[in-house]
Amino acid sequence: MTTATERGSERRANRRQARKRTPIESLPWRVLKNPNPPVQFLREDQVQLLHESSMHIVENIGIDFLDADTLDIWSAAGAKVDKKAQHVWIDRHLLMELVRKAPAQFTLRARDPGKNVTVGGNNTVFVSTSGTPFVSDYDNGRRPGTLADVQNLVRLIHQCPPINVVESQVTEPQDIPVMHRHLERGLAIFTLSDKPVAQAAHGNVVCEDCLNMAAIVFGGREEIKKQPVFAAIINANSPLRYDTNMAQGLVSYSRGGQPLVVTPFILAGAMSPITMAAAVAQQNAEALAGIALTQICNPGVPVIYGGFTTNIDLATGSPAFGTPEGAWAFFAGAQLARFYGLPYRGSGGLNTSKVVDAQAAYESQMCLWPTVLSHTNWVQHAAGWLESGLVCSFEKFIVDVECVAMMQQLYEPVEISPETLALDMIKEIGPGGHHFGTSHTLARYQTEFYRTAVADRLAIGQWTDNGKLDAGQRAHGIWKELLASYEPPPIDVAINEELTDYVARRRRELPVSFV
Amino acid sequence: MTTATERGSERRANRRQARKRTPIESLPWRVLKNPNPPVQFLREDQVQLLHESSMHIVENIGIDFLDADTLDIWSAAGAKVDKKAQHVWIDRHLLMELVRKAPAQFTLRARDPGKNVTVGGNNTVFVSTSGTPFVSDYDNGRRPGTLADVQNLVRLIHQCPPINVVESQVTEPQDIPVMHRHLERGLAIFTLSDKPVAQAAHGNVVCEDCLNMAAIVFGGREEIKKQPVFAAIINANSPLRYDTNMAQGLVSYSRGGQPLVVTPFILAGAMSPITMAAAVAQQNAEALAGIALTQICNPGVPVIYGGFTTNIDLATGSPAFGTPEGAWAFFAGAQLARFYGLPYRGSGGLNTSKVVDAQAAYESQMCLWPTVLSHTNWVQHAAGWLESGLVCSFEKFIVDVECVAMMQQLYEPVEISPETLALDMIKEIGPGGHHFGTSHTLARYQTEFYRTAVADRLAIGQWTDNGKLDAGQRAHGIWKELLASYEPPPIDVAINEELTDYVARRRRELPVSFV
């Protein structure tokens, strides 16, 4: 005998089977593993020199932490603290002793255990863009992000296998009061997808709610402390400062057992000296200080070393993303993270373009390739980023998903065996023939290669007949088709109810505005 | 006392100084050197297995050479030849003995000796696209290539420092009789630029003219035999065949001392079995057979191992370029070339897009990155390629030049020294400050980073005020500005005259049509 719920989920499964899946949904879910040695741009003596410079910075120049409790934590741990100046100097031995407590890798649980991801080693996990105030799409143009956009983007992330992690801050839901946003975002990521998630780390109140919501989904606060269930970005407000929200977020989540992605935000020439050596030395000092703090709060808690260093534009002073200098800094950061035995975070799709054009694509590739080559473990902004991170574009999201999928395919092992060398077929067809119709070809015709989702390989006549669409226009059709056929993954009824109740209660409790 | 000629060239130099140079012209001329170990996707036992398979193919399956003289050359060298079937079987010891005679690197002379390039080792030399029947630009759309297009593209290559080599076949001048094209192209590359050149290798007559024209420029046939002055592509007509034109071209240029780029043209699933292992094994057999032939003709003549293997599209059977499988084949090919101690040729900007859009860019990057990572020495099609190689796009050319320039910049050494670590500046500015106006920044503000030529980093307001141009539209403005300000490099008057006379005479001598 089957229950009503079981029959319902069976019907849904049948419907999913029945409808034609888009090529993008048919892509395999997998975590990229790069079996090759990491590409390294620094010599060992250069790593050492950068390390020494960072040690000089934390010991002699010091770092601001704009939060009284955090200053007390540093003081208790043995650092030199000026509470009035909110400034901390950290002895290098203390710093390195703390950094060494962090694990080299960890597994992030997902609501669907089949989608758990291991962060570390030669695994590369792809995460969507985050923190964009605006969204854009070809129907409605560029506009402030809304909760509906967050929900739709979470649905798309869920539907696109190449993206491993759901980012709750994929855009800022500006139609929701600031202090309620994390509640709505939390509800979206846990109910609309079953992939691992990333959360915001903005001050004590937000963090406490996010921990509580995750605890509802994953079996309680003690349970999620044992094995982490979300990651969160901490940005240093470079140069040399962690602000109140970030310091509190770092302490809250570390204590709650969740991995932080400690990432200085440096544009060389603005937030650091203009030379890339200085930018990376400063990044390293700031990142290590934040990482050490996580280990005071909760020794052994997973933490990711984040690199986001790039340069300003020489002509305008604007941020420059997808640059050769930024690529170099990614590689250098990965090498430093490895030097300290920490997982590394980079960025996959940064660019400064205002539209989904060739520039958006080639600048993004200037980020994507370095992440994979350097064994970057956590690739933020791998899908959707446009206009220096001001915009999450629905069309760029789809284009980026294809680029990530192609990279995942490149790193799948290629079989070299008598079967695939097919010398008998080469002999049988001989000179001047063709292999289109052979049994060897036909047996593999559906599956042998990456099947493109966005790229159009038709001849110009057929492409013209189809309306002369460029990649952005085709991507537009794809995300609309995906959303039209979206179905939420199953969720335990009791969990869903508890989550909804929690959010309803906190909506009433929290002020609608917040200074 | 200065002569009239000297004063004229001084005036020209002053004019060049006076006019504002575009960012693209201001980029440095350089040859990319990758100091990192090459990225390798094959294990040693896999290299060995591919090698063994290729040996099996040349020994037991054999290869067509559709030219009687070439068959005689093979026969005299000791290969088993069936003259009627125009088929050759080559013993592996004979083959490898010949392949080993080829040098690991060589220097290609340019008309301007400062632009000579060394091909081999960890040098990567970038060459424009070649062999496209059509051109396109935003003024005149897609159309058959003409001599004027060849001339304009040669001018642009000359003006864009990142492109190292001028390709005479950058497009097919379809307004010129087939048998006169090489003459006009030869005149264009030697008079409109002073960079190293690549030539066509189509049968004995064309090759003889190309050798004679190069001899006029570089001091005679004996002189160019001592040090090569142009390279030329030889394509195997895969599977397992060299046609008459290619066989004759290979023999002529080898004897004339010029390096050939021996490149099987394989789309897995059409010209080889569908499995990439088979495609690369077959590529290797075909390439080595062609390379061995160059060494019979002229032992020690430089030759480049060319890889161009990619796959067909599963949905349409069309060629697929810029694919993960094609990238894997590039890496595998480079590793095989290194195994044999030969310079390697890959492709930089292959794509199947019909327009200069995100697809054109991300597929191109799926080629460009592997070339640099694998120590590819000769990167064909690095600028201009569109629509599976049917079109050379003026706008794509400019976009590609920026991508190549960014890659060259990434591989420039980054100085890590007390001066660039700038710890005193980090201390002076301290937490929360900014480095915009420091003496350290101002001293480096003009030169520290790659200065973008195509990418627009302006804020959305300024970008809107400038007309909302995408990368292709900006590229359009750039090439028009370049051509408007083009000035030919100086050429010796006597050489210019001899070259012009030679072409005039051969125009009269050669038939206007040719079967």
Class based on secondary structure composition and strand pairing of chain A: alpha/beta
**Biggest beta-sheet profile of chain A:** 9 strands, mixed
- Cα(first) to Cα(last) distance of chain A is 56 Å
Share of helix among residues of chain A? 40-55%
Quick one: how many beta strands of chain A? 22
Largest interface: A-B, 122 and 123 residues
Strand content of chain A: 5-15%
- Any idea of the CATH class of chain A? Alpha Beta
CATH-derived topology of chain A = TIM Barrel
Count up the helices of chain A: 20
Mind telling me the CATH superfamily name of chain A? Trimethylamine methyltransferase-like
Strand order of the largest sheet of chain A: 1-7-20-19-16-14-12-11-10
Q: What is the name of the CATH architecture of chain A?
A: Alpha-Beta Barrel
Shape of chain A: globular
Q: Number of folding domains of chain A?
A: 1
Tell me what the structure shows:
The structure is a homodimer of 515-residue chains. The model of chain A has no long low-confidence stretch (mean pLDDT 95). In chain A, a hairpin with a 3-residue loop joins strand 8 and strand 9 (141-144). In chain A, helix 6 (147-159) runs parallel beside helix 7, helix 8 (203-218) runs antiparallel to helix 20 and helix 13 (358-373) runs parallel beside helix 14. With 515 residues, chain A is α/β, with parallel strands linked by helices. Chain A has a single domain (28-413, 452-515), classed as Alpha-Beta Barrel (TIM Barrel), CATH 3.20.20.480.
